[in-house]
Amino acid sequence: MECTSSVYLPTFHMGSSIFLWLFLIFSVIFSPVSAKHSVTWTYGVNYGRIANNLPQPESVVTLLKAAKINHIRIYDADHEVLQAFKGSGIEIIIGLPNEYLKEISIGEDRAMNWIQENVQAFLPDTRIRGIAVGNEILGGTTIELWEVLLPAAKNVYSALYRLGLQHTVEVSSPHSEAVFANSFPPSACIFRPDVAPFMKPLLEFFSQIGSPFYINAYPFLAYKNDPQHIDINYALFKDNRGIYDAKTKLHYDNMFEAQVDAAYAALDKAGFSKMQVIVSETGWASRGDPDEAGANVKNARTYNRNLRKLLAKKKGTPFRPKMVIKAYVFALFNENLKPGPTSERNFGLFKPDGSIAYDVGFTGLVPSAAPPSILVSFKEIAGQGWLRWSYLLVSTAWAVVLL
To answer: Which Gene3D superfamilies does the UniProt entry name for this protein (predicted)?
Structure first.
């Protein structure tokens, strides 16, 4: 179960203008994701697959490229998915599911086998950039997993180190808001007393290997649980009075940034003021049960559109202005087999046919409400391949110019 400590020390004419414009179209379509993007990215999407109506992973790659989404997170290490993303340039965080934690925590050899089979075998063509060890373990109800999370994470990192992959693949573990004792105002946030004895050594390890703190932050859940006292406009990034944190003298005009800064405050108090916070999940349900306040298409569109605009600014939060906010939106598709309330099955940005569920500003796809004459089906795009699809785009461009 233990790993040796040494492991962790470690002016144109008309014709020229048209030509340039078409050249730019081809450049956007065929250019790979630059290495620089891995540093400057701010927007990613969670690709959950608890459903029986989703497109094949190869088609999902086509969809992500069309939407210019270059960072995703999956909840396992499915080989069909990893193979489909080969050569795509899309960066992936894979998941080590909760049910594997006990086994991986037992010994480094088991972690090594898992890494060799699910990570090393696909590198470098599939750009696996992180492993999320478990999901929402601390603060959860399965107490026996609290004790094995850290040794599992250490064994995973140890295996990566021995394979020379420690600088390529990051090790992390996403947490829910349940790890906090309180989060309002943001400066008052601390880790729960029962969680802290497990959280602090985990943070010490992550600090040592340079990993960020991943938090699942959902203004939707906060609003759903207390609609009488939370301003819906505050949760949706719309005009509102906001809140004032008297201790820091900071003003917040949206709940999302307040939740991120609450995490920073908790880290600060625990002694990890330099650790970056990344939002591993956030989103808004487009449908819910009668008692799920705010779950509708209008609010989902508003939240996700405004969140995307915020992230595109590549700025920090009021409390950490120099720490650029990064977030993975939940989720790519609705997942019709997920258990729980109706909202759990209705967080998707896209429909299974590749059309958008609602308009949040993505380019390259058309809304499902568009006239059939201008719709190009998702299956058609995937089947024809990018060369034929790019020809269609250029033909359309010529038609616009001629008009």
So the answer is: Glycosidases
